[in-house]
Amino acid sequence: MKIGILGAGQLGRMLALAGYPLDFDFVFLDPAAEACAAPLGEHLHAEYADESVLAKFCEACELATYEFENVPETVARFVAARVPLFPPPKALGAGQDRLGEKRLFDALKIPVPRYMPVAAREALDLAVRNIGLPCVLKTRRMGYDGKGQAVLRTQDDLDAAWTSLGGQPLICEAFVPFDREVSCLAVRGRDGAMAFYPIVENVHRDGILRMSTPRANDPLQAEAETYTRRVAEQLDYVGVLAFEFFVSAGRLLANEIAPRVHNSGHWSIEGAEVSQFENHLRAIAGLPLGSTALRGHSVMFNFIGTAPDTAVLAAIPGLHVHHYGKAPKPQRKVGHATLTADTAEALQGRRVQLDAVMENTR
Length: 362
Prior knowledge:
This protein is an alpha+beta fold. The chain is built from twelve helices and 17 strands. The protein has helices at 10-19, 51-60, 73-80, 89-94, 98-107, 121-131, 157-165, 221-234, 268-271, 276-285, 310-314, 344-360, and strands at 2-6, 25-30, 42-45, 63-66, 115-118, 135-139, 149-152, 170-174, 180-188, 194-196, 200-205, 208-214, 239-248, 251-258, 297-304, 319-323, 333-341.
């Protein structure tokens, strides 16, 4: 079976690496000439909205998916009219607009931080009066890895934030003094069957994910699964869905969903019985879902900007290195490593070595 993937970044690359043992082949559509997944399949180099190339993409595959949530929803609908596309276009659209996303959570009775839409400078003043300071002003679309947002701590911050972000649809959200950030990764099959990975605890810096640790028996696991299931069923979802939450005063507050495989699930390649990438492919192809159980203890670190020397990394027991084939660049995710061990004590000992290596590359 040949699967089409809209986008050819590192997520597409890891989907292909998971798919070849299942006898899948791949065709990618991506506007980047040197997309890092391109060597793993046929690469159609064109803008997503190029309908002549989109038609070729559809002719080349038996079903399609995407690894990039900012593919235009109109493009997804074009593809879905010609070949099965999973997750469905409405799921893609739900994750593209922060205001629509928050309203979806409200409708499903999933707790969210206070928020208000902002369409004009006067509306920002009103939002700040109603929500209070500190708060966060965000673009409704296209923001990721900390881009497209500004924290407002005092009234003096409003003009600068508006100058930076105004002129496009915005949303103002309450600043959450969270205890931790977690994500729930679920996979839903074409038959509606669902499986959940253990909650993942995430650490961000400068708006970019730096470290993810799966937590067995987390007390919020059942609550996170309940909320994630509501969203997946509402959207007729098929594939892997990531739901990011803040944990504040012991309760979950919804942050956002990602309708695709997700950075906080990369540890699953070595740390789970079946990775998020293989399970996504199983789901969209109509195969039985694989086990999401942990193999042991693990933690995932992103390489941001540049990666440590491979020889140094290879000397650390239990470390699995993934380079993405990307040129070094500030704030760019160029790879990751997952550290594994049979016990929590052994993992902590190995982390001391890895932490020292990572510190030297900052």
